[in-house]
Fold this sequence. Notes:
- By secondary structure, the chain is α+β, with helices and mostly antiparallel strands.
- It has helices spanning 2-12, 36-44, 46-59, and strands at 17-23, 26-32.
- Strands 1-2 form a two-stranded antiparallel ribbon.
Amino acid sequence: MAARMRQLALDEFGCLEFQALCEGEQEVALSYWPDLDSIRRWRAHTEHLLAQTLGRERWYAAYTVQVAKIEREYRIPRI
């Protein structure tokens, strides 16, 4: 399910990048989007809604979602 949601977000909903890291029982997933409208469309998609329901029922005891705006970014070494 996670692989399908990732591909759907990237291929059909404008997600720019998706990264997930796990350590023990903890998971952090970051997705980058061009705008809030893209996020809203993604949140309302039928398949994503089903995945959310299954996540609450089967895979996650609790989770937090944060929507943040990146104001500045830099990389070392510069690309």
